[in-house]
Amino acid sequence: MTPTTVVAIARQAMEITLLISAPLFIAALATGLIVSIFQAATQINEATLSFVPKLLVIFLTLLIAGPWMITIMTDYMRRLFESIPGLIG
């Protein structure tokens, strides 16, 4: 196993991690922005007002994007496990 192979595997793992986490981060960011604009317009400064909608939106995003996320993860793990004999030898 060469250092180049290790770097390639680590790079792929980071790409998969970013790809899988992107929908949840984008949903949380958009929800936080909308709630912040609402709080600024109404002058309501309640901490739970930003937490609860983000939690609900992340849960819904996970329900919608969850099967896709699991497919991406299992495909990566399958490719990684199938390449073990070639990496060892």
Explain what this protein looks like in three dimensions.
With 89 residues, the protein is mainly alpha-helical. The chain has one domain. Helix content is 91%, strand content 0%. It contains three helices and no strands. α1 (3-42) packs antiparallel against α2. The longest helix is centred in the N-terminal third of the chain and has 40 residues, at 3-42. The mean pLDDT is 92.
Strands, helices and their partners?
Elements: H1 3-42, H2 47-82, H3 84-88
Overall shape: elongated
List how many beta strands DSSP finds: 0
Number of helices: 3
Q: In what range is the share of β-strand residues?
A: under 5%
- Helix-strand pattern, N to C? HHH
Largest sheet: none
In whole angstroms, how far apart are the ends? 8 Å
Number of domains: 1
CA-atom Rg in angstroms: 19 Å
Coarse structural class: mainly alpha
**Poorly predicted runs of 5 or more residues:** none
Average pLDDT figure: 92
The helicity comes to: over 70%
Keywords: Bacterial flagellum, Cell membrane, Cell projection, Cilium, Flagellum, Membrane, Transmembrane, Transmembrane helix
Main location: membrane
Subcellular location: Cell membrane; Bacterial flagellum basal body
Pfam families: Bac_export_3
Short description:
Helices cover 91% and strands 0% of the residues.
Q: What are its keywords?
A:
single chain; 0% strand; transmembrane; cell membrane
